[in-house]
Write a structure and sequence with these properties.
Elements lengths: L5 E6 L7 H6 L3 E7 L11 H16 L3 E6 L3 H14 L5 E7 L2 E4 L2 E5 L9 H6 E3 H10 L4 E7 L26 E5 L16 H10 L6 H15 L7 E4 L57 H5 L2 H12 L4 H13 L3 H14 L4 H14 L2 H14 L4 H14 L2 H14 L4 H13 L5 H10 L3 H7 L8
Parallel strand pairs: 2-3, 2-4, 4-8
Antiparallel strand pairs: 1-8, 1-9, 5-6, 6-7, 9-10
Helix pairs in contact: 6-7, 9-10, 10-11, 11-12, 12-13, 12-14, 13-14, 14-15, 14-16, 15-16, 16-17
Length: 468
């Protein structure tokens, strides 16, 4: 049903493909830097601060020793990097994240402290930190796994001072066994619109939590998620020379559920007696329903800068299908499902063959309880685009709310066959299994491990995980 960073993972291989698992047992260290406020920029990048906190929390859960710092000067960055390098032991896992401003010069990417003095191009190399040098130093210190995330492809005030400025970031030259991803194409920058959290980090965190998923597959899933969510306005660049596997979350891969088994008999009756010495499993813990997130007020929606931008475009051109679509997505993300459905109405009116719009209207209608019309929308989306996995996920929600649990499980099964790491389909299938009288607890908990907000998301659709 269901932004700009560079991500580099380099693994030194000392054997066969299991070396990724061996590396997972090594010490893990991370440095997370978020420079959200530069004197040359008038705004505070709140998403940078929030992203660093979210990433830090996740890395700690994954066993990393994390140092998080915000708004560092050039000297502060140098000190933090030196401290970080000093923690890297031979064979360890080392991760570096930087959020803020970056700039390219002479086909190199440089990261900037908040007090960087950039007046001409020669100042970039003097005050900036060369990305390739950081990667090389991590390698020199003996890191077996090197992960680098750079959220720095933003338009900034320093660029206007360089006569022959090249937009965006430059590719980093990396050694073999390297996975590199830029969350936007080379030489491009992200939108200047401010948000509370970047789409890229949100997608990334969800994907690296997926059990049994290699880092490379998680990054490819992140790439696909960003492309889909932005309607191809941002197309991450991904390059891999990996010859081994590494996973952030080392749990087992999801196991498909073939469908509901036979229902209970005519009466409850006692169960079979345990045989001598047989362990009786404990009763499952009492279910605690998640609370739906607070919905934005009308004033908050009206004052949202990005919504205002799309509203202005629509007022200028009432046939601007993209503006309706994007505003509908924003409304849906914020939980304003009725407004979202109304915008997708307009998209379908303008282009009756837009399968994604039918799918989005399906699940926003499902959230508002307009279930029969939602079902028709999902069917139409799949008729127009049979490979649209999101529409199977959306129809699973509709059938779940309609109480059609076998149909819901079937939809979620098909969705998970195409995307085994969909936390939404995993959670929905677990609920449908539970509501049909079986035990879906394992799938529900697995989905929560993949996305800790998934129960609240379903609560916002009016789905109580404890009872139908």
């Amino acid at each position: 049903m269901r932004f700009i960073a560079v991500l580099i993972l380099s693994v030194l291989v000392t054997g066969h493909a299991s070396s990724g698992a061996e590396a997972a047992g090594k010490p893990k260290v991370a440095l997370v830097i978020g420079n959200a406020k530069y004197p040359n920029d008038d705004t505070v990048m709140n998403e940078v601060t929030n992203d660093t906190q979210d990433l830090t929390d996740e890395l700690k859960r994954d066993g990393f020793d994390v140092e998080r710092s915000v708004n560092l000067t050039t000297e502060g960055m140098r000190t933090s990097l030196d401290r970080f390098y000093g923690k890297i032991d031979s064979g360890s896992v080392a991760l570096f994240y930087f959020g803020g401003f970056g700039i390219q010069s002479a086909r190199q990417t440089y990261l900037l402290g908040i007090d960087a003095l950039i007046w001409e191009e020669k100042d970039v190399a003097h005050d900036g930190f060369n990305l390739e040098s950081i990667i090389q130093e991590m390698s020199n210190r003996g890191a077996g796994v090197k992960i680098v995330l750079i959220d720095a492809a933003r338009r900034n005030a320093f660029e206007r001072r360089i006569r022959r400025y090249s937009a965006g970031l430059a590719p980093a030259v990396t050694p073999s066994n390297t996975l590199a991803m830029y969350s936007t194409a080379l030489g491009t920058v992200i939108s200047s619109a401010r948000t509370d959290h970047s789409l890229f980090v949100t997608e990334l965190l969800r994907e690296i939590r997926a059990p049994g998923t290699t880092a490379e597959q998680a990054f490819r899933n992140t790439q696909a998620g960003v492309v889909s969510a932005t309607n191809r306005e941002q197309v991450p660049w991904l390059s891999s020379s990996m010859t081994t596997d590494f996973a952030f979350f080392g749990g087992p891969a999801p196991t498909p559920t073939p469908g509901p088994g036979p229902g209970p008999g005519p009466g409850p009756g006692p169960g079979p007696s345990p045989s001598p010495g047989q362990r009786i499993p404990p009763e499952p813990p009492a279910c605690q329903a998640a609370t739906a997130p607070r919905l934005p007020t009308a004033d908050e929606l009206a004052n949202d800068a990005k919504i205002q931008e799309y509203t202005s475009r629509i007022q200028t051109d009432t046939s601007d299908r993209i503006a309706y679509y994007k505003r509908g997505q924003l409304y849906a993300i914020k939980g304003a499902y009725a407004q979202a459905a109304a915008d997708f109405d307009q998209v379908v009116r303008i282009n009756p063959r837009d399968a994604e719009a039918y799918n989005n209207r399906c699940w926003t209608r499902a959230a508002t309880g307009n279930l029969l019309n939602a079902l028709r929308d999902c069917d139409q989306a799949l008729q127009l685009k049979p490979e649209l996995t999101d529409a199977l996920d959306s129809r699973g929600l509709v059938n779940l709310k309609l109480g059609r649990y076998p149909e819901s499980i079937s939809d979620y099964n098909q969705s998970l066959e195409k995307n085994p790491h969909s936390s939404s389909s995993m959670f929905g299938r677990g609920l449908a299994t539970r509501f049909s009288g079986q035990d879906g607890t394992a799938e529900i908990e697995q989905a929560k491990n993949m996305d800790r907000n998934i129960a609240s998301e379903f609560a916002s659709y009016g789905v109580n995980e404890c009872k139908p």
